[in-house]
Amino acid sequence: MKHIFSLEGRTALITGGSRGIGRMIAEGFLAHGARVYISSRKAAACDQTAAELAALGTCISLPADVSTVDGAKALAAAFAAREGQLDILVNNAGAAWGAPFSDFPESGWDKVVDLNLKAPFFLTQALHPQLCQAGKGRVAKVINIASIDGVSVNPQETYSYAASKSGLIHLTRRMALRLAKDNIAVSAIAPGAFASDMNRDARDHADVVSARIPAGRVGTVEDMAGAAIYLASRAGDYVVGATLVVDGGVTHSRG
């Protein structure tokens, strides 16, 4: 039990790893001994974050745009050129779009659904050989980052975001059944309010947001990293197809 949460000797790839929730997870993985690759669309930001996180351990920048299948395949190829196996894949890259129902544009639908729902499937598919290789020694992990907006409905008109995150939760279940036979455990995290560029309210108006959260505060780096470390480590080997809600109780308060 002493080392049940250790990630020593494991290699991880985190999309959207240059900021926000992706960076929180990268920090946690590095602190627990993993070798971490982070990827994001903006190369300069990805490189800068990797350089900063290198103080915690081996962190390598691998910029890519996974919003297309070709982009996902390119990232998988770039990773495979450097590593023979992948112990942990975190599908975190995401986007959001808000607009009134009558004006909601197709561009806002396609951008969000392609990145939030399509990309996790095709990137996992492209990295399947490396995940299978890792699975020969111990349980490999795929962790999809969903959202509480895929669990319960909020008042904001973010139609494609809510639909994509709900779809990702169900996709997690379906992928988990298939990949379990390859010794790959697929699970998901549904975060609530965490300070990030995507959730500016939690970042810039934490006091106001905290008043709506039963736990009385927004999430911290430790909250997100802890959940991801649990799923990624030996501790989470028997968690298959489940979505871990990390939201301070918000989904229960929505009814």
SSE ordering: EHEHEHEHHEHEHHHEH
CATH architecture descriptor text: 3-Layer(aba) Sandwich
CATH class: Alpha Beta
Which topology does CATH recognise? Rossmann fold
Q: Any low-confidence stretches, pLDDT <50, length ≥5?
A: none
Query: Mind telling me the CATH superfamily name?
Result: NAD(P)-binding Rossmann-like Domain
Structure, described:
With 255 residues, the chain is α/β, with parallel strands linked by helices. It has one domain: 3-Layer(aba) Sandwich (Rossmann fold). Helices cover 44% and strands 14% of the residues. The chain has helices spanning 20-31, 43-53, 69-80, 106-126, 128-135, 159-179, 200-204, 206-210, 221-232, 250-254; strands at 11-15, 35-39, 59-61, 88-91, 140-145, 184-191, 243-246. A seven-stranded parallel β-sheet has the order 3-2-1-4-5-6-7, with helices on both faces. Helix 6 (159-179) links the parallel strand 5 and strand 6 (184-191). Helix 1 (20-31) crosses helix 9, helix 3 (69-80) packs parallel to helix 4 and helix 4 packs parallel to helix 6. It is globular and about 50 Å long.
Indicate the topology.
Layout: E1 11-15, H1 20-31, E2 35-39, H2 43-53, E3 59-61, H3 69-80, E4 88-91, H4 106-126, H5 128-135, E5 140-145, H6 159-179, E6 184-191, H7 200-204, H8 206-210, H9 221-232, E7 243-246, H10 250-254
Parallel strand pairs: 1-2, 1-4, 2-3, 4-5, 5-6, 6-7
Keywords:
255 residues; alpha/beta; globular; 10 helices
Sum this structure up briefly.
This protein is an alpha/beta fold.
